[in-house]
Amino acid sequence: MARWLIKLIFLAALGFGFYHIAFRDAPDDFDLAASRNELLAANMPSRAGQPGIRVLIADALDYATLTLNGKVHMRAVTMGMATREGEFTQSVAVDVSPTGNGIKVGADHYVRTRIRPLGSQPLRLSWKNGSQDVNLSLPHEIELYAVHVYQGGERKPKVRILARLPLEEYLYGVVAGEVPTSWPLEALRAQAVASRTYAYFEIRSRHNEEYDVHAGTRSQVWRPSMAVEPPVRRAVDSTQGIVVTEKNALIKTFFHSECGGFTADARLVFTKTPILALSGVRCPRCANPANKPTAWSATYSRQEIAARLRKAGRFKQGGEIRNLQALDQNGNPMGRRLGRAVTIEITLAGGSGATLRIPANEFRMAMGADRKNLSSTYLTIDGGGEARITFSGLGWGHGVGLCQNGAAFAADKLGYGFLDILALYYPGSKPVRLWGSGQ
Ligand SMILES: [Zn+2]
Q: Rounded to the nearest 10 degrees, how much is the dihedral formed by the CA atoms of 262, 264, 265, 271?
């Protein structure tokens, strides 16, 4: 009887927009005696030895909408800490916005809050990215809080949204987001191990940070889903807990779409310390023209190159470009030879002959690292001193570590198992299982 009465009050309250009443539908003993520090702890193990991961899904938002349905659990930090559980008998959309010192969810203020769906209904989030609407359905716990960013010299509060979930569950969304699920199982398994190692490396090295990985290409693409496809589930579950190591340390297992022929040495792209497993190898797929590696080309005026570099903060001294050439890993000009460019050397106009050297991958990022611009650093430059300069090359991505198209080829055409694929692209590495068991 009392329960019905509460539900009635709750529904009536919703009608008046008192969203916060929703979470009053929970018995008092759900309040936890956990400290604020525990709630804010950067990384808590989630399940039986398996680490949890914090994924940044949206940042610096003015506004977001959260849609709740079904049974929901909420942990919130206000002045103290409270947990509440509520059941929504219908879909309820609430506004999320930053306040000076916290966040407003519906009518309630929090320092930060975590919301977790308990039933079959996911949390649904929507926000605007520029003029684009972004919609996301998440069966996982989310954490909402305010961050401050400088905009036009002013410090402004904004909304940040993280997802928090067990690492193995996160990997379902990464394997599905990074490669076609129709690929051979051994290639999916190799991807699962590479993605697990990359994520765990980030978890360990970023435990003092607010989050571990970005949801997009800045880390690895994460596409969460309510329904995990069977091959994805199999690839992740059968390699559960396996990571790739060198000298008993985790490797930051970079990977990319297609290398173009040879993978790049990480030292010349991302790191300073030599890592044998990331020193670059010949790719059996891309090095063979018969396998038709992806060809690309892009042409720019010298002014346009200068403008793009300036915008990326890579051409601060200004001036005009006279000549532009690619250098290989020994610092030698590559001329018209197609290969892995390590540095782009720019000679400035004006008689001084001053040169500017930019790491090739940073040059690629500055020019636009998409399919219309510089798809890869496996390239050649044509017309370095002409009015218009053409870059053409093979492959797609930064070129370090595992070549995804190469992995699919090795599984499909060469009969490689996932351990063979990992040994190919991370030479000398050792796979170890840190938790779980293969199923
Ligand atoms: Zn390749």
A: -170
